[in-house]
Amino acid sequence: MSAKDIAALIHPAIAIAFVFPLIGMVVYFSLQTRQRRLAVVAGDKSKIPPTVGPEHLKLGRVLSGAVVGLTLIGLAYPLFTKISANQTWNDEPLRIGFVSLIYLATIASLLLLYRAKPKLWRGVFASLTGMGLILLGSQPEIYRRGFEWYISHYYYGIAAALLMIFSLAIVQDIYQDRQNRWRTVHVVLNIFAVLLFIGQGFTGTRDLLEIPLSWQEPYIQQLYEQQCQTRSCTVQPDEASESQPSG
Ligand code: HEM
Ligand code: HEM
User: Which residue has its alpha carbon closest to ligand 2 atom 17?
Assistant: First the structure.
């Protein structure tokens, strides 16, 4: 495999080896947290230790950063490879400068969100982190699968990352709200997040199947250009302009 192919595997490998096991642990502690809280409210003695809530929070904070980080890596790969292949900085130096700045600003906003305590700053840094991801994702180098947005790895991924950022921003509110409204909001949104994560497992592996190894790329390109799924054709990548569909 070439260096480019190995680089393409960094994002899926981190997702599978690090982020998905973490999701499992966070969900496990979340169920224990809820079970224990409901038992205590009902006046029962729970065998679940009181540490499960803080454990859920500790791993949840790691998960938020991991998902945003994974999203940034997923976006960086197509941005970097396509910009360097097309030497886009010659034609659009301003946009490339802007994209690099937004990338750094998104990381900085996330780090500041981890430190922010007052509601206002949590809101500001959560919004900035989310906006950064959306701006990076809106660049023409990103394949968003707009024609099938409802099964798009991009849209699911950005939505999941936004939900993780939101979870991080409302931690204090969950603890301070005696009526548990923020807790309920958190649970409902994160059940949806878990569905999105499962969706990422499906759409990510599908996308891996669709992306060819770099030596295969010119051949596969021909399959699309000649619409070989609808008619028989001859693939001759080196003389691309001369090759004609035979069917
Ligand atoms: C897969 C994602 C997640 C799921 C499914 C999830 C689910 C839950 C559930 C079911 C509870 C218990 C609610 C109850 O007591 O009724 C909970 C509590 C909580 N969650 Fe999450 N959560 C997730 C991610 C996160 C993240 C990323 C954070 C923070 C960064 C977070 C912070 C909290 C906090 C602070 C509590 C209250 C814990 C306590 O009572 O001590 N969660 N979550
Ligand atoms: C929490 C889980 C995940 C999140 C948040 C996530 C997010 C993203 C984002 C935002 C992109 C850039 C947009 C795009 O090209 O679609 C991306 C690309 C990609 N992801 Fe994921 N992803 C996750 C898990 C996975 C998994 C499990 C796999 C495969 C096993 C995977 C494979 C890919 C591939 C192949 C690309 C395309 C890179 C390219 O365009 O060259 N992802 N991901």
Answer: 74
Kindly state the helix (H) or strand (E) to which residue 98 belongs, with its residue range.
helix 93-115
CA-CA distance, 28 to 4, in Å (whole number)?
37
User: Percentage of the chain with pLDDT > 90?
Assistant: 90
pLDDT tens for each residue of 142-162: 999 999 999 999 999 999 999
Distance CA 70, CA 10 (A): 9
The residues lining ligand 1, judged by C-beta closer than 6 Å to any ligand atom, are: 23, 26-27, 30, 33-34, 37, 53, 56-57, 60-61, 63-64, 164, 167-168, 171, 174, 183, 186-187, 190, 193-194
Mean of the pLDDT values across residues 111-140? 98
The rounded Å distance from CA 200 to ligand 2 centre is 7
Q: At 169, which amino acid appears? A: A
Among 166, 160, 167, 143, smallest CA distance to 196 is for 160
How many of the other CB atoms lie within 10 Å of CB of 169?
22
For 154-199, the pLDDT digits (tens) are: 999 999 999 999 999 999 999 999 999 999 999 999 999 999 999 9
CA proximity to 143, closest of 81, 201, 94: 81
Helix (H) or strand (E) holding 3: helix 3-14
User: Which ligand has its closest atom nearest to the C-alpha of 64?
Assistant: 1
